[in-house]
Amino acid sequence: MPPARKRPRSYDSTKIRAAVLAQFGHVRDAVLALSPDALDGPTRLGEWTVRDLAAHVAWGIEAVPRLLARPEPAKRELALLDWPSASAGIAGLIDEHTRGLDASDLAGTYGRAERAYQEAVDGAPDTRLLPFGLGAMTLADFLVTRTVELVVHTDDLNAATGAGIPYERQALAACTRLLADALAAKAPGGAVEVRVPPYAVVQCVEGPRHTRGTPPNVIETDPLTWIRLATGRAGWAAELDAARVSASGERADLAGLLPLMG
Fold first, then answer.
1. How many secondary structure helices (H) and strands (E) does the chain include?
2. Is the Cβ–Cβ distance between 126 and 140 less than 8 Å?
3. Architecture (CATH level 2) of domain 13-171
4. CATH number of 173-248
């Protein structure tokens, strides 16, 4: 029998709320500085242009005030650790919706999204349930998912434009930790230790559990490489060959477990 899931990690709500706003601000500043030609350029996300991606980022932040404005559900239905795998199942719907967004006035869209977010979360309790399509979530949990959306798409924008958009430390940390914890939930166990310094260390995969000293199966990588692996932006074998991932031990192979979301 696999070991029971550990108690979910806690996040500092004040820091997460600020991190979402700060990372969105970094993206806003970079997007609004892009030329029309750059905005119409391709991304690594299928048929999405940079403009489509930019509109999608704003839509993801607008979701917070939009859901807060709706009636509160009766009970919580979706745990934070289940969000990555659940969201992977609606990738097609997200793609269709994104390509239908009006991206003609990004300055106006970003300004409205930022104001609406600030007004909506001010004073809203962490325990407020949101009627999210995949299942009702608390506001606190939903805001952690926004750090994932923002950090992942910041990386997508940087890959597409070379804009060098910075990563807000708390947003990058939350994104890294949630995806690491989702891996441990997907493959519970203690045979493999995954290290993503300086933000996360988790144990996963069934098998012999070490009790002291250096574990026999260790995987280590940096936060952005981990995020790319977890979201399907990078492949296990390629990152291992490029030495962006180090893996020691016969069980230190995550190829069959990744990506966690796409």
1. 10, 6
2. yes
3. Up-down Bundle (1.20)
4. 3.30.1050.40
Q: What is this structure's pTM?
A: 0.94
Give the tens place of pLDDT for each residue, 26-60: 999 999 999 999 999 999 999 999 999 999 999 99
110-140 pLDDT, tens per residue?
A: 999 999 999 999 999 999 999 999 999 999 9
> Could you give the residue range(s) of every CATH 1.20.120.450 domain in the chain?
13-171
Which residues does residue 201 pair with via DSSP β-bridges, in sequence order? 195
The HSE-up count of residue 231 (CA atoms within 13 Å, CB side) is: 24
**Rounded-to-integer distance, Cα 22 and Cα 173, Å:** 14
Domain with CATH 3.30.1050.40 in the chain: 173-248
Q: What is the token pair recorded at 185?
A: 């939930």
Maximum C-alpha span of the chain? 58
